[in-house]
Amino acid sequence: MSEESELLLEIKDNVAILTMNRPQRRNALSTGLLVSIAQTLKNLESEKKIRCAILRGAGEKAFSAGMDLTAVPEGVPSDIQEAIDSKGPLQFGLDIVEECVFPVIAMIRGYCMGAGCELSMACDLRVGSENCRMGMPPARLGIVYPPAGLYRFIRNIGLPNTKKLFYTAKNFDASEAYEMGMLHYVVPDEELENFTLELAEGISKNAPLSVSGHKRALYLMTQAPALSDEAKAEIDQLMGRALGSEDAKEGLAAFVQKRDPVFKGE
């Protein structure tokens, strides 16, 4: 891929390194970037050489600062476009990461926020540098997060820590994130790349059918139970009510103006 690509790919033996290359936007997840991640992982699966992948952000400031819906890709295959239309670009991309046949490791430096934080939860393992920060800001924006995303956090860090994450809307430092299960490893910044690569190389030396078999079995065993139609309708109502509220307008304005929001529950 060219240097201008939103996603860069490097292969080291049986390890693929995918770099989200939008440092000027703190690697915010555009629809095009999510499609590139999905297509690249699918291509690597078909080649049957890669046994582990690392997902990282370009630059020093962020793994990913969240979602960016401003860029719409062109020339997307019809089957992919149908999936995007059905699930939305974020859940489409994250589902591909989560269902990938080989393990994917998130290498986290700097900020890992919002949709970027959920992307890290879609990865199998998460390695963070001591300077990283992780958080989910919906409660500061006056919105309710979708059930698929909430369940991805519940599955990874449990219900108590998911409540802590979403109720407080706090940015957690590396040590707090580790205690909550958001990170599997915390290492000094200067050791992050070597540690993550050694971890991936170690995984790639294990029996591929065993590793991929365990990944698939664990995925199938931990899928979200189906919500009733009544529960779906109620959650949709909660999301719509919050999204159309004055508090949501205030949350967005405060974010843009870089000030604390003043919420009224209206």
Question: Your description of this structure?
Answer:
The chain has 266 residues and is an alpha/beta fold. Helices cover 50% and strands 16% of the residues. The protein is built from eleven helices and ten strands. It has helices at residues 31-47, 78-87, 89-99, 115-122, 138-141, 147-168, 174-179, 192-204, 208-221, 229-243, 246-257, and strands at 7-12, 15-20, 52-57, 62-64, 104-108, 111-113, 125-129, 133-135, 172-173, 185-187. The strands form two sheets. A six-stranded mixed beta sheet has the order 1-2-3-5-7-10, with helices on both faces. A four-stranded mixed beta sheet has the order 4-6-8-9. Helix 2 (78-87) crosses helix 3 (89-99) and helix 3 (89-99) packs parallel to helix 4 (115-122). The mean pLDDT is 92.
Q: Which features would summarize this protein structure in a list?
A:
266 residues; alpha/beta; 2-enoyl-CoA Hydratase, Chain A, domain 1; Lyase 2-enoyl-coa Hydratase, Chain  A, domain 2; 2 domains; 11 helices
Provide the number of structural domains.
2
Strand content is 15-25%
CATH superfamily of the largest domain: 2-enoyl-CoA Hydratase, Chain A, domain 1
- Within the largest sheet, what's the order of strands? 1-2-3-5-7-10
Q: What is the succession of H and E elements?
A: EEHEEHHEEHEEHHEHEHHHH
Count of beta strands: 10
Low-confidence stretches: none
For this structure, the CATH topology of the largest domain is: 2-enoyl-CoA Hydratase, Chain A, domain 1
Mean pLDDT metric: 92
| Dominant shape | globular
Ends: how far apart?
A: 48 Å
Number of helical segments with 4 or more residues: 11
CATH architecture of the largest domain: Alpha-Beta Complex
Given helix and strand content, the structural type is alpha/beta
Radius of gyration: 18 Å
Tell me about the largest β-sheet.
Answer: 6 strands, mixed
- What is the CATH C-level name of the largest domain? Alpha Beta
Proportion of residues in helical segments: 40-55%
